[in-house]
Amino acid sequence: MKKTLTTLALGATLAAGPALAELTFPSLSYRTGPYAANGIPFADGYADYFAMLNERDGGIGGERINMIECETGYNTEKGVECYEATKGEGALVYQPLSTGITYQLIPRVSADGIPMHTLGYGRTSASNGEVFPWVFNYPATYWDGASVAIKYLLDENGGDLSGKKIALVYHNSAYGKEPIRTLTELSEEHGFELLELPVDHPGQEQKSQWLQIRRERPDNVIMWGWGVMNQVAIQEAVNIRYPMDQFIGIWWSGSENDVRPAGEGADGYKALNFHAVGSDFELYDDLEEYVWSKGNAAGAGDQHGTVLYNRGLYAAMIAAEGARKAQEIHGTSAITPAMMRDGLEQLEMTEESMAELGLAGFGPTFSASCENHGGSGRAAINQWNASEGKWEVLTDYIQSDQELIARLVQEDSMAYAEENNIELACQ
Amino acid sequence: MLYREAGDFKTTYREDGQTFPIRLDRTAYFAILAVAALFVPFVINDYWLNAVLLPFLIYAIAAMGLNILTGYCGQVSLGTGAFMAVGAYACYKLMTAFPDINIAIHIVLSGFITAGVGMLFGLPSLRIKGFYLAVATLAAQFFLVWLFNRVPWFYNYSASGQINAPERTLAGFRITGPETQAWAVYLFCLVFVVASAWICRNLTRGAMGRKWMAIRDMDIAAEIIGVNPLRAKLSAFGVSSFFVGISGALFFSVYLGAVEVGEAFGINKSFLVLFMVIIGGLGSILGSFLGAAFMVLLPVLLKNVLVGGLGWPTDLAAHLEYMIVGGLIIFFLIVEPHGLAQLWRITKEKLRLWPFPH
């Protein structure tokens, strides 16, 4: 026993020893708690991508990647602990996968000079790089999501939503409240009635909300849910026989884990997504060859090809490409967080670059700039096919209402800048 | 042998009634205070501040507050999280409404506002007790969280419903906001903790504390000997909420900087603080500190040992953490049902006689 402990301790020190010269990517994950069902596949994808880069290319630009995983449990206090614990190790970019932790970290990363990338979550108005130089949230934001959902519904209804009733079932937190501002604007513009139905953390109790839906009979239900809330909502919708094809979830409410528990009933449920689904990519061959076949898959290794696993891959890919870009700009392979920021700011995702990475057609194309940290704001609608057990892509990437969103982002970020006396960057 | 009363003569009533009658205790107390105030600020870094010391200090204040109500006055409360939220939101509204006023004043004022709210929700305690009162305070928990979520005025109409602490200074040093210095924040909180502990300790051994304890031990008997239950219970609610409010204000403004009421001040927080009080020891100021240390520091320590030291997977470590902390809670409560403070009291008794027990 003593010997094993010594070996373990030795192994730990050896593993931690050469970390200084590496590229450090902290992974603030959650594999426990009510949000674990969604946190696990994402964390697995994130870890596997970096493991693959280490095995295949020896890291990025010759520098090995050191991924430090830290369990947050989707809890802000633990998130802060994780941030403080990892920032001293030379963390290049934070991806907390929690809107609550994002709000917590925005002032901290800005003060400490470490970039943060919130892939399709976090504070929407952080897409204004003038006010939030250290925060990135491309390729799409929550307000894009809200706008895309309404655009899709407009399409479905022949361009007219007047007199319709649309319910928003949302997680009663900063995350769930994000789309309300956009949806309120849109409801005025298109003349539909918006019914707001908050669900309290963690979301296991939704009887009253769905009773209200049953009574009010909205034409469509839009959901901003996460974790166990998704599963419960979809099950409740099945229970009240709400037509599933009228029910649209945001991209965080559209994974296999959310729809599977409801079985056949969930067939036809729709969700937004800003990347492709399935495992039909060249990258998957590399993952198989360099990571999985060697038994190094993160977690239980049973999430490959799921929506959130792919999203974890996507997040890791953007971090890695940002680092590569930074190395290119600054001509050094050992980059600092400040260089990493420059890399993320000049990141450009084209069809060619994605194909080169073995992810042809995986996500929307976008290019970031000093002002625009929010990407192109495009998302597609997916639909769940319960009998085959997979997500099908219904539409192409739909472009959100950029004019409206740019105006809202400007309003909100400027208010933040004024409140916190922030000098605008990019001048 | 070392720890004894022999030779420590007291010649005045004042000396006889002091908080630490044994010289070694006194020395240890001042030594800890000196280390905390004069040594720690020079070595503290962001990690120690934000992951270890700040949560410990802030939860210690909350535990002291709840200890007054539950431990000294015997009124079970499950509304601590909500009262912390009152402190946090009061602090936020004050900080944004009067930006030029010193942050320390805002925090004390938030304590007073919480005291008022606490007394209001303490009114049912005049008619109901025990589990029924716990349910009434549970109502406060849910109502207040709902209120802060529902009424946009409380979060200044921000889109996310979150409150963010703007930068505020004290004597030129930044106390809130992102660009603070670890030592300044630490000392700021330490002053609040020491002051709270001093006030709590002296309140509980004075007339007021004796009235609370009389109510706790048997309210009818207390009423017969002339304790006014209305005053005693409401003052306990008020004083308790005052400290809980201060801890909530510090928790929001100094520690986290941005909070979401449902997540930060939900029912889990009420239970966490209640567990601190129960594990630390009901009716003991030291117990509040021990309980806070147990519930805050142990998980961090375990995490660092299991993940940082042994390199285990984070999920395994997180699950083990729950099991170990849960197991230890049960262990300590079996060994000593009156909490860690009682364990310490017994140890002291034994030490006084050591090495010559009867």
Provide the fold topology:
The complex is a heterodimer of chains A (427) and B (358).
Chain A: H1 2-16, E1 23-29, H2 36-57, E2 65-71, H3 76-87, H4 99-112, E3 116-117, E4 135-136, H5 142-156, E5 165-171, H6 174-177, H7 180-190, E6 193-199, H8 207-216, E7 220-224, H9 228-239, E8 247-249, H10 256-259, E9 270-273, H11 282-290, H12 307-330, H13 337-345, E10 348-349, H14 351-356, E11 366-367, E12 378-385, E13 390-393, E14 398-399, H15 402-419
Parallel strand pairs in A: 1-2, 3-4, 5-6, 5-7, 7-8, 8-9
Antiparallel strand pairs in A: 9-12, 10-11, 12-13, 12-14
Chain B: H1 13-16, H2 23-43, H3 46-72, H4 80-97, H5 103-122, H6 131-150, E1 163-164, E2 169-170, E3 173-174, H7 182-204, H8 207-217, H9 219-224, H10 229-256, E4 258-259, H11 261-264, H12 267-280, H13 285-309, H14 314-335, H15 339-353
Antiparallel strand pairs in B: 1-4, 2-3
Helix pairs in contact in B: 2-7, 3-7, 3-8, 3-10, 3-12, 3-13, 4-5, 4-6, 4-10, 5-10, 7-10, 8-10, 12-13, 12-15, 13-14, 13-15
Q: What would your notes on this structure say?
A:
The complex is a heterodimer of chains A (427) and B (358). Chain A contains 15 helices and 14 strands. In chain A, strands 5, 6, 7, 8, 9, 12, 13 and 14 form an eight-stranded mixed beta sheet that branches. A two-stranded parallel ribbon of chain A has the order 1-2. With 427 residues, chain A is of the alpha/beta class. In chain A, helix 2 packs across helix 12 (307-330) and helix 5 runs parallel beside helix 7 (180-190). Chain A is globular. Chain A has helices spanning 2-16, 36-57, 76-87, 99-112, 142-156, 174-177, 180-190, 207-216, 228-239, 256-259, 282-290, 307-330, 337-345, 351-356, 402-419; strands at residues 23-29, 65-71, 116-117, 135-136, 165-171, 193-199, 220-224, 247-249, 270-273, 348-349, 366-367, 378-385, 390-393, 398-399. The N and C termini of chain A lie far apart (62 Å). Chain A folds into two domains: 22-141 and 277-376 and 408-419, Response regulator (Rossmann fold, 3-Layer(aba) Sandwich), CATH 3.40.50; 142-276 and 379-406, Response regulator (Rossmann fold, 3-Layer(aba) Sandwich), CATH 3.40.50. In chain A, a hairpin with a 4-residue loop joins strand 12 (378-385) and strand 13. Chain B is mainly alpha-helical and 358 residues long. Chain B has a domain at 40-266. Chain B contains 15 helices and four strands. In chain B, the strands form two sheets. In chain B, strands 1-4 form a two-stranded antiparallel sheet. In chain B, strands 2-3 form a two-stranded antiparallel ribbon. In chain B, a hairpin with a 2-residue loop joins strand 2 and strand 3 (173-174). In chain B, helix 13 packs antiparallel against helix 14. The longest helix of chain B is centred in the C-terminal third of the chain and has 28 residues, at 229-256. Chain B is globular. Classes of the chains: A alpha/beta (427), B mainly alpha (358). Chains A and B meet through helix 1, strand 2, helix 3 and helix 4 of A and helix 3, strand 4, helix 11, helix 13 and helix 14 of B.
